[in-house]
Structure formats: C-alpha cells, structure tokens
Amino acid sequence: MNNINNMKLRGYWNYNYFYFSSLLKFISMRKYLLLMCFVILPVGCTEDEVVVPVACFTIMPSSPVPLGGSISFTNCSQDATEFHWDFDDGSTSSEKDPTHTYTQTGSYEIVLIAYNGSSSGAKTPSDTTMLPITVVRYAKSKAGQ
Question: Could you tell me if 128 and 65 lie in one domain?
Fold first, then answer.
C-alpha cells in the first residue's frame, strides 16, 4: 500500500512540477514580451510624422502684367506654415499672400517655396512651384481683341 501511495505522490509531484515548470516558462516569456512592449514599442512610436506641404499659388492679373501695376498673389499651398517668395527681380517676401509691383519690363519666374516647421523648429523645404510671367509696358485689353 505504501508503494501505491508513493507512486501516487510521485505522479502528483511530477504533474505539479510539470505544471509549475510550464507556468514559470510562460511567466518568463511574458516578462520578455512585456519588456519588449514597454521598451521597444514606445521608442518606435515616438517619432513625429513628417507632413510634406504642397506649394501652390495664383496671380491676379494674369500674364502679361502691366508695368507698374500691382500683382496680387493668392497662396493655395497645403500643410505649410511658412513661405518664401522670390519675384526674380531681387525682391523676396515671407508673407502668405503678398503683392508686388515690377518696375521694369521683361520675363520673370516667380518662385514659391512652402515650408512645414517640424517639432525641432527646423524648416523642411517642401514642394517648390514656379510661374513665369511677362511684364509689358501696356497690357492689351482682352475685350478689344
């Protein structure tokens, strides 16, 4: 009888040892998984998403532009926070919707660079767009053509 109880006890002990051993392995694996979730995942998720702006603008009046006349620029850029305009005559602007007057006739290429400031404060150039215009001494009336 003692042998039977001994065998039952050994079987019980072996079963429990297997159960606790498996449980310890599982807990150990979970610890590493939790460690990976708390240490590795937040590091990968903390970077800022980069949003690249799209530069766009229209002008009024359209080309040809009369010499000495004021030209209005309407900025239609998307996801931009800062702007740099180059009017190709030595003048620049950082306004969103500037106006400009040309003092000499000729062909000019107006350039708009749209920026989206990052969390570090650095400017990231985005899309650059360009529009050629012609400045003439007088503009023909479209109604008279």
Answer: yes
Residues 77 and 13 grouped into a single domain: no
Domain membership of residue 86 as a residue range? 57-136
Return averaged pLDDT per consecutive 10 residues of the chain, 145 residues in all.
54 53 59 48 54 91 91 94 95 96 95 78 75 83 52
Distance CA 70, CA 98 (A): 10
62 within some domain: yes
**Tokens (6 digits) for 95:** 């306004």
Q: Tell me the residue ranges of DSSP E strands in 1-145.
A: 57-60, 65-66, 70-75, 82-86, 92-93, 99-101, 106-115, 125-136
In a domain, 52, yes or no: no
